[in-house]
Fold each of these.
Amino acid sequence: MPEPRGLECSRCGRRAPTVAISTCPMCFTVVCQKCAHFAYGRTFCSSRCGEYFFHGDADDENDLSES
Ligand SMILES: [Zn+2]
Ligand SMILES: [Zn+2]
């Protein structure tokens, strides 16, 4: 009987105990502690998601000029 204890890291593919696994709050990618990127007191799957989470929408470059 395999016990579903632990989750598989989406990055490195390793199975890690649930306590060592984090879910990215941005893209919900499951990553282990080795692959996780810590930023702003949260755990992201990558620095990109961390930036995105903090800065918000990346569509900032194009300012919509309403007129
Ligand atoms: Zn990993
Ligand atoms: Zn992510």
Amino acid sequence: MRKQCVFGPILSRRLGSSLGVNLVPYKTCNLDCVYCECGATLNLSIERREYLPTMAVIDALQEAALRLRGYPPFCVTFAGWGEPTLHAQFGRIAEAARRIFPKEHLVLITNGTLFARFRELLEEIQVFDLIIPSLDAGTEAVFQRINRPHPSLSFAEHLESLALLRQRFAKDIWLEVFIVEGLNDAPEELLALRTHLAHLRPNRIHLNTLDRRPTCTWVQAPSRERLEAIAHFLGGEVIPSFHVARISPQATGHELSGEQQCAPRECHSTPR
Ligand code: SF4
């Protein structure tokens, strides 16, 4: 059980040495993205529940802190086998992580869809230093095709959720856009997406694409040149293979940076 809750540290392309925190059993999410590199969603749920025992997660964090004494990770990252904000005790676990790792950056990787429906999350996220949500579509039709959401979740609610996140979270937001060739890369879709991004005002826009086996085998990555062109159009950057992790001083009170080696993509879909 504890191995399910806390994993790593892994070397992340964006975050450096990152201790992962997983709050849900494989594979529990309110989306079933065609590109998910963790596999198809087995439990498509939009219910907040105590999916993994809260004390097991907190105990695993304490054990990890002891194990890593003298070699602390750069970040403690809530990610894992599905959507972490679905956990009913997410806020309590995040507070515990803050206490157990007071100096490390606390990062949340989320699909960003639940802040409008569960407004308590807007308080629960305040202990984080950095939030990395996703937005892959410019329209409802493409949202349905690429993210295959729980039937009760609309694209308008996803946008409202991200807008509330921006309003209420003053620290860094790095918004991730996953590009699937032939699905969300049409000019009119990208234009709609760019309009939403201008409204949402993330601190950074990160373009991502496939580098592992997707849930749907027909999913194709665009060429590097095409991805670079889309990143330019959207005002973002392609997630680099080598990166200097840099979280702004207002997020943490001090700026930190550290060059890291290429590593597996950090993703809310996969603990690695
Ligand atoms: S990519 Fe993330 S949001 Fe999409 S199905 Fe996988 S875990 Fe859920």
Amino acid sequence: MQYRKLPKGAEQISVLGIGTSSIQASSEKEIEEIMDAAIENGINFFDMASSEAKPFAAYGRAIKDRRDKVYFQIHFGANYETGAYGWTTNLDTVKRSVDWQMKALQTDYIDFGFIHCIDEPADLRSIEKAGIIRYIEELKEKGVVRHIGLSSHTPELVSKVLDMGILDMLMFSINPAYDYADAADYETDSYAIGSVAERMELYRRCETEGVGISVMKAFSGGQLLDAKTSPFGRALTEYQCIQYALDKPGVLTVLSGVRNMADLKRILDFCNAMPEEKDYSVIGSFAPQDATGKCVYCNHCQPCPAGLDVGLINKYYDLARSGDELAGNHYENLAVKAESCVRCGHCNSRCPFHVDQVARMQEIVAYFNR
Ligand code: SF4
Ligand code: SF4
């Protein structure tokens, strides 16, 4: 298992995380066993926006003697009073629900306290007015909440909350179909929000400002895994989708919604998958006009005879241009920089996204030597 450090904290977060939206398909006993196997195999990050109340007590039993081994995202606005998920902006209901969630999980602290699922400016105004953000901040001041997060699908809304300067984590939906929604003819999916440029800018802003991203809907609710439902008319694999999300700036972990032990084992095998199994560059052949000419850091163009890590160099360049000073330092510390490009053109001929990397490397040299 690989781990990525939370920029504003010491937490080392597993790149594979677990979402709870589908796990109720298993019995409570099976959920405990799934949780146990996940932790034993190095997964330490769990989102608790469950579609039912059922997993909470099972998770609580599974982590009873190893609370320090896991991180939970708890949502201030998810309500389980009826036994099923409900969305609330009522402060008293939020308080009752959070207390219930903590009790069921047998914990007295919350690793990530989330402003839950807001996509509209009106929703943001109503939870501010209701005092929910203030309540999360108060719990943070008391040490009950360790970090504040936000779950949303809307770049514009996320930007407004980023402006408040309170976030350490963002839960955001990232997959090729949502990123290239226009090209994918995905108007009917209300979660595919924002142009590719706007979405990429958001990922870069998160990285620049030290806000980690936990990824939801990496498979677009399973639609991308089947040619019949994929908006591209071509299926991708789970591993391609996970790698796609992990390559985006700011991303710390990808939350897969497992239904049972077989799902967990298959997701865990991502750690042993060959690079070819994770290579998602095929999307360059059917996506998107929007994707042409823009590096997505996939490194399908490797190997470079001069030893350049083409994807990483491009990522640092894009981040540095959007104001990330750390990215500039990371670039300067690379053993092999853009200057070493011998303009052989191998990457140009291999790139499925038709990036003119020979020209781009010259541009990168000029930028960092300016
Ligand atoms: S140049 Fe093309 S193949 Fe290479 S990392 Fe960028 S997008 Fe991927
Ligand atoms: S053109 Fe430059 S970056 Fe691309 S493969 Fe050749 S040496 Fe490497």
